[in-house]
Every structure is written in structure tokens, then in C-alpha cells.
Amino acid sequence: IEAGGSTAQPFYEGPLVAADAFRVVGYGFNTVNGLGFRLVTFDILGSDLFTALEMCLATIEANDEFLPQVSGMKYVYNPDWAAGSRLYSVTVGNNQLDPSATYTVTGNELLVELLTGYFQIPVSNLFLYDSLSEFQVLAEYIANLQTITPVIEGRIVADNNVPVELISFEGFVEGNNVQLNWSTSTEINNRGFYIERRIIANDLEGDWNAISFKEGRGTTTEITNYSYTDDVNDLNAEIIKYRLKQTDFDGSYTYSNVATVIFSQPKYFKLNQNYPNPFNPITTFEFQIPSKGNVSLKIFDILGNEVATIIDEKLSAGIYKYEWNASGLASGIYIYKLQSGDFVDTKKIILLK
After folding, report:
1. Cα-based distances in Å from 164 to 91, 174, 300
2. Is pLDDT larger for residue 274 or for residue 64?
3. 18-158 belongs to which CATH class?
4. Whole-number Cα distances in Å, 338 to 89, 276, 285, 292, 298
5. What's the CATH number for 164-262?
6. Ramachandran bin of 243, using left for φ above 0, alpha for ψ from -120 to 50, beta for the remaining angles
7. Contacts of 154 (CB under 8 A, 6+ apart)
8. What pLDDT, in 10s, does the model give residues 215-270?
9. Backbone angles phi, psi at 112, to 5 degrees
10. Which CATH superfamily is domain 270-351 in?
11. Contacts of 217 by beta carbon, 8 Å cutoff, 6+ apart
């Protein structure tokens, strides 16, 4: 076992004594029993864990002893990338690190001091084992096994050929569309991105389905911005999840983190006052409908004559905005009427030229 990645000294082949275990764990001692750093458990937010790993990797050229090793966690980084953005992926178990999730970690007191003191990263539910050090745990573990055979688990992987560094991926609602945006800082052998979607409705979660493909830039060291607009007008979805399947030219692929979009469907009909009002000559109408149906929005003069139709078609539940240009009409008071099924509402507008 070689030094590095929070292992202070190597294990050499042959008989082991307690001092060997003491040298392997992190340098330091505690005032209770003097047997090295004590064990702690704490909770940390996924996004904070990601930040901490980036900060550790920022000084990798000078010292790799600050790279934390945690059983069940694996991270891949590219040492050629700029400090502060070297991480390619972090997995916990078999799942990508969730920035919004809270993770419980077992480590030593030096790790907590590094996080909260040097990095200024918060942790919660901190518990310190007063008289139990990581040396004691390791020594007892070796004594019980009698013989140890090192196994490389690949928890920390340096890869200069990581294909794509995805630096952001987000989704948000725009009317009846979901806008997806993502950016890469570097790309190597990148064929492109399959955009996959999962729909959740009535507490039932559907399968992942590929809905589109965006071509990549092959190999580049420039920041590249991508976007995709998903028309969800006909989907009866409460929550939609998106992920990217980044694919190389050789067929290998990796998944991005998941972007979740939550829809808050209107519970009732509502016609808002246009804005601006008075206006000249452009104004905006906004309304919401709670269910799918035929919707009409029409403009009438003060005598009841129809002068314009803004919309007259079938719409899904949602919130809608329409802009109207009244440059062809004379100044005066007009009425606009929204009708859908049994619902009817009218409001006054003033065109002032």
C-alpha cells in the first residue's frame, strides 16, 4: 500500500506490528490517549462535498495527502484541467453524487478541521468518538484478519483523457416548454449528447427515454454552451427529470447529473389585467387554465364589435402570455374576453395614442 490519498506512510510486504498501522494513518495525536486522530461522523451536503473535493484537488501538484478516501465514494479528475474545476465525476455507491442530498461520512477529526476551518465548509450532526482513534480501528482490523492482501479499489482516479468536463446542467419552465442549458469547459472525442427524459405523474415514475440528440464539438479546450427546448404542452406531468448521456465516437458514454423540473399546475381559471394599461400600441395578456380545453381570447370595442382574436385553439393546463399590437386601431376603451368551456371573464383596456 503506497502513501497518498490520506495514507501517510506505505505498508511494506512482510510481518506487521502496531507501529506500522500507526504510521499509515494520518499524522497527529489526541490528548485523550495519544493514539492518533479520533474518529468522527458528520453530515454534509452533496454540493459542499463536491466543493471540498475540488479544493483538495487544487493543490494536487504539491501534495496528494489531502485527497480524502471514503469507502463507497469514487471520484475521477483530470489533473490537466484548471484548479477549481478538475472533477469529472463523483459517485457514491453506484449513483452520481446528488448536490441536494445530505450524506453521512465517517472520518477523522483532522478531516473535519480541514473542512470547517481551512475550507470554511459547513457540516452538521458532528459526533466525536472521545477515545476511539482510526489507528485503533485499523490495528484491530489487521489483528482480526492476521493476513492482509491489498486490493486497488480505484476510489481516486486521475485520467488525462476524460472526454468531457460538464460544468453546468440546468432546466427551467418557460410557458409550456422546458428550457435545458448546459456547458462544457473541455471536450475530447465527444460525439454528442443524448437528452433523456423521465416523467412523473400521479406518483408514478416512468422510464428514461431519449427525446433528442445534440452533436458535440469533438475535441476542444474552449467553453461550449448547449441548449434544448422541450415542448411539454401535451404532457400531463407533475415532475419531469432530465439527464444527458454524453457519448464518445468509440461508443463509450457517461451520464450527467439529473435536472429536475417541477410543474405547479393552476387550480382554477384566472384572467389577469393586461400590462401596460393604458398602452400604445403593444400590450400583454396573461391568463391561466386548470385543464385542457378550447380557449379563446378576443378583443371588442365599446359597442360589442369584435376587432381582434388573440387566440382561439385548444390548450393544455398552464399559464399563458400573449402580446398584442393595436397599431391599426384608434384610441379608446376596449374589452377583452377570455372563454373556455363554462368559464367567461372580461376586462377593460385603454389604448392611448
Report:
1. 16, 28, 56
2. 274
3. alpha beta
4. 50, 18, 10, 15, 7
5. 2.60.40.10
6. beta
7. 74
8. 998 887 778 899 999 988 777 777 899 999 999 888 888 888 888 888 766 778 99
9. -65, -40
10. Macroglobulin (MG2) domain (2.60.40.1930)
11. 187, 190, 224
The three cell numbers of residue 234 are 401535451
Q: Specify whether the CB–CB gap between 342 and 297 falls below 8 A.
A: no
β-pair type (224-231, 177-201): antiparallel
Give 5 or 147, the one with higher predicted confidence: 147
Cell of 216: 458535440
Distance between first and last Cα of the chain: 83
Residue 191: which of 247, 252, 253 has the closest Cα? 247
CA dihedral in degrees (52, 58, 59, 63; nearest 10)? Answer: 60
For residue 278, whether the previous peptide bond is cis, meaning omega lies within 30 degrees of 0, is yes
Q: Where are the alpha helices (DSSP H) in the chain?
A: 18-24, 46-57, 109-113, 134-145
Question: How many CB atoms neighbour CB 286 within 10 A?
Answer: 14
From-to residues of CATH 2.60.40.10 in the chain = 164-262
What whole-number distance in Å separates Cα of residue 291 and Cα of residue 289?
6
Lookup: cell for 130: 472521545
